[in-house]
Amino acid sequence: MGVDFSALRTLINRYCAGEENWVDSRTVYIGHKEPPPGADAFIQQRFPDNRVVSSKYTFWNFIPKNMFEQFRRVANFYFLIIFLVQLIIDTPTSPVTSGLPLFFVIIVTAIKQGYEDWLRHKADKAVNQCPVSVIQRGKKIKKESFRITVGDVVFVKEDETFACDLILLSSSRDDGTCFVTTASLDGESSHKTYYAVQDTKAFRTEEEVDSIHATIECEQPQPDLYKFVGRINIYMDNEAVARPLGSENVLLRGATLKNTEFIYAVAIYTGMETKMALNYQSKSQKRSAVEKSMNSYLVVYLCILISKALINTVLKYIWQADPNKDEPWYNERTEAQRQRHILIRAFTDFLAFMVLFNYIIPVSMYVTVEMQKFLGSYFIMWDDDMYDEELGEGAVVNTSDLNEELGQVEYVFTDKTGTLTENNMEFIECCVDGHVYVPDAICNGQVLSGAAAMDMIDTSPGPGGREREELFFRALCLCHTVQVKEEETVDGIKHGIHQGKSASFYISSSPDEVALVEGMKKLGFTYLRLKDGQMEILNREDEIERFELLEVLSFDSVRRRMSVIVRAASGDIFLFCKGADSSILPRVISGKVDEVKARVEHNAVEGLRTLCVAYRPLSPEQHQEVCRLLSGAKLALQDRDKRLSEAYELVEKDLILLGATAVEDRLQEQAADTIESLHKAGMKVWVLTGDKMETAAATCYASRLFRRNTQILELTTKRVEEQNLHDVLFDLSRTVLRHHGSMTRDNCSSLSNDCTDYGLIIDGATLSAVMRPPQEDLNSGSYKEIFLEICRNCSAVLCCRMAPLQKAQIVKMIKASKEHPITLAIGDGANDVSMILEAHVGIGIMGKEGRQAVRNSDYAIPKFKHLKKMLLVHGHYYYIRISELVQYFFYKNVCFIFPQFLYQFFCGFSQQPLYDTAYLTLYNISFTSLPILVYSLMEQHINMDILKKDPSLYKDVAKNSLLRWPTFIYWTVLGVYNAIVMFFGTYFLFDNTTFTSNGQMFGNWTFGTLVFTVLVFTVTFKLVLDTHYWTWINHFVIWGSLVFFVLFSLLWGGIIWPFLNYQRMYYVFMQMLSSGPAWLSIILLITASLLPDVVKKVIWRALWPTITERIQVNAGSFHVLAFLHVSGHRFSACVRCSCLLRNTRVDIYSPKQAECFIDEEKESNVTPPRPRRSLETAPEQRRLVL
């Protein structure tokens, strides 16, 4: 008797990934009903419940998980090791000195993260317990959201939000459609249409829906919001009918039902498997250049620490080699400790010295930097200049870790449509067989009244031409995905189709489609509605024409076209297709191609967006073949996109060209000024767009990316076809290198417009060839390096016909070049997400193409013009502030610990601490941390108006100039110098053993306290000298910190604290202050410590001043005019330009006139007029040359 293993083999093949034809799918049983006998075996799969968890911790794992994450940081782990060493071995300092700062940082961070996670738990609980209506046994019951399981049939009413990912079964509308807004998912506020399964759309009651017997096979959950592959098997009379399911059938969790009374749908993905939850996962962590510098400095200081400990250990044993210089008695070493092996003793002493000097590593710097970044990000969000009244939104900071990176940008990669332009389409004209039609102004539903219906600027078509003209207009009225909505007020404007006739308006996810349909309305053909599969249009004779919509071949960025198949009332079947000229014209077999192509090229040069329109009549046999191809592709679970693409290629062919359209997308306000400012700031600007070359080039000229004297270099498919890629690249390379070192945009932006520079244009196909790895049989080498060399010598680059992935490849290529420049990518659409994620800094524009770019960006701004202030002002300030913060932290810790190192030479290397335990503990926590934090939040070394007017100031901080190694070494040397002055100054003053007036001698704790007092005042006054922008907050924090230090020292040494076993600082501070010489020494040592830095700055500013320093010296209290006294008079110095003190001629005029000009400048904000009185009429005045 044989055993049939076929069923078992099928199951194994299905669930084992090793089988090549295994499809990663799931089966959902609607209403949890088993399939009828004879169908597939019923296998109940396990799916998660609908509980959404956005929190990171639970009550039980918070402490271990949070501690693990915090101690993964090198600095925290290092201090933990030091703390444990202090506990294990006998060290010169108390474990409190290392443990208290460490645990302060750990606890503060844990509280912050715990509070944030508690808020997430609270939000999760509110969502998970939301009531949902579910159909069970033909009745409607209420369930908590988290109890929904895959296969449950859900009832949703209008304005309710979907609790999980659903497949639409039926709706209250007769055609089985429903309208949904996905603003919470992608920011698109427009209503989108979703479709019910054709075989279930008639079921509209609980009993009818409960009677559905079907299963759904679909792909496993994946995060793409716009992709879904599945099919539904409906069992009728025990026979299964299969229907395709796509993204148009899926209602995503978080979306909201609109303009539909109710729907029934089945849950397919729940909880953390919903597409919304899968998109929770965070982006890859980006690290700023400043953070990398901090880590490098930390390694250097760690090496210094080890060196110090090693030197002291060696010197200690050299010192103790003399029998008369044994271990000091006050170390209280036992005989057993003295008899240990010398290596063990040496290692123990090495660890003790490491503990003694460990404060050179600033543990509090990390928490201060985090606070600075977090608090500083609010200045961007609070900036009223970056608030857009039209959108009602301001700038958004999604991550504060990259604030200072905004001040280091060298390359800006920008999208064109919706970023440089408004993405606010206006229909300009259409061309039918060479005849041009120009309607009246139409823009987003707003039609100017009192205008004629149509204005032809060419001769009228002949008798046969009128038929093709109307066919063109019908094609544009039918080939789209525009929806007709009831009258609605949007931004205070009522939209309507017919003036006084109809209360509806058009809406679509594509502004181009709305503009085209509105344009056709002005030309006499009005699209009315889609009802019961019939598209209705109103022709010129006010007759309603109906076309049955048979198929929609959706637009995608690869094909760059869309098509519809419709059946006219006469029974004729047409395929109408519209798309980019590059995707339509190669498929055309007839029509006036030359005339239309010439008009398309003309409009592209004018900067208009062009589309070509074509059609193809289909016979019934051809239509059946098309339906067979499309149905087979739509039912496929594996490689559905590929099979659909192949089917579209077979259908969209043998087209007859009808004409073309032209739509204008206006340049955004101040976009040209912003790009010019970025160029002057030393940034390279690249435009990456999917538009055709002529349209993109016209936009580049309008936005001043290319100037009239810019020599355009083309690296396009057309040129590569005429001449091979190798020769083209080398020709371009020779051209730009011939002028290498001559004037480019960076060094001629402030000179005459006659200066020549280069602009490069490359298309997507050529870029793919350039990026392709070199073949072994060619001696071409790497084309990528040649291409990069050409780009480096071009002032601007335009990349057109770019796919989204190519945009990211461009950014990645520039990031990986030998200079490793800082890159910024800015865009507004989903096609820009890849480059936004790839760049060092990603900025999203709150545009009209959804919010995918905003959600995936590091920063979001309403308009492109706001990029200017974000980089030139906020970025400049953030970098100045944090670079000072980092350098200052290392400086003050060198000042703090180097005297401790010197002190070991005078105490027999006995590991005796110089400072009291309280001072060791509170130095970085209380005495010196708050002033630098406030400085890093408030400092404005130059007025922000000057930063905006003179973009060249951005170059002063470019390429991480303030955190380079020479600057770091200067700060370190300055700290060592200050430490030497403090220690030896105090040491030599202590030579007078009768230091007090009563003859009492000072002890070692007084010595250390005096050094520490000079230290605290010196590092604080150093910050005072570096502060240019004073507010009451700065004064309060700086002077308050010094007062707090004095008061703490008085209380710490003036009271007998009961919890201390011994009090070595009792009365020490007061005794020190009672000595006149101590006061004098404090003043002299502070002055001696700060004097060299002051002298160095004075000399440097006098001999080699930067532009920033010139402005700081001359700006004074006004940002435009600074008045300096010369021979009893005053003269004005313009601080608007970079040539402030170079070859600037300035007239002398009276103080009264000066005040007049100040008032004028304040009121008009324009260049101040020259003095009204000439030198001839005012002989007492004279001219100076600065």
Automatic annotation (TrEMBL):
Ranges annotated as spanning the membrane: 71-89, 296-319, 350-369, 918-938, 968-990, 1002-1024, 1036-1060, 1066-1091
Membrane topology: Multi-pass membrane protein
Gene Ontology molecular functions: ATP binding; ATP hydrolysis activity; magnesium ion binding; phosphatidylserine floppase activity
Binding-site residues, Mg(2+): 415, 417, 828, 832
Residues reported to bind ATP: 415-417, 513, 555, 578, 609, 689-691, 801, 807, 831-832
Active-site residues (renumbered): 415 (4-aspartylphosphate intermediate)
UniProt xrefs under InterPro entries: ATPase_P-typ_cyto_dom_N, ATPase_P-typ_P_site, ATPase_P-typ_TM_dom_sf, ATPase_P-typ_transduc_dom_A_sf, HAD-like_sf, HAD_sf, P-type_ATPase_IV, P-type_ATPase_N
E.C. no: 7.6.2.1
NCBIfam families, alphabetized: ATPase-Plipid, ATPase_P-type
Protein name: Phospholipid-transporting ATPase
